[in-house]
Fold:
Amino acid sequence: MLKINELAPNFTLSLNSGENFILSENKGKNIVLYFYPKAFTYGCTIQTKSFGNAYEEITALNGIIVGISTDEVETLSEFADACYTPFALGSDSTGEIRRLYDVQRKFNLGTSRITYVIDAYGVIRNVIHNEILMNIHITESIKTLRELQNGKIEA
Structure:
């Protein structure tokens, strides 16, 4: 896992919308970058729907949500539709971003459930790792975004 106060590594990601997401092109926005193991699994569906339910609150806090898994773009498009997701899901089918952000499970057994909250300057301000309690990713992300907005975390 990367650490709080580290600069978030730049990457380019293919999105289910057909566009690319480039982290460095989103300076000025807070990014909630969540990694999840696999589309259409029980926990990942709950987590993605929960982020969807928090979409308006997160965007009101100058946030962008990006979900990342190693699923193919086509699968992510179906998953986004099934979850009524108002934000982009990205395909890291090669596992390159998973390795860059150190979210690969031991023995190459998939992706850990980790969320990075990245501030408007590209600095990691929170790291949430919980494989079981999916909703903590959402509540902790919102808490961090509020702290950034209120100046409780120095930018």
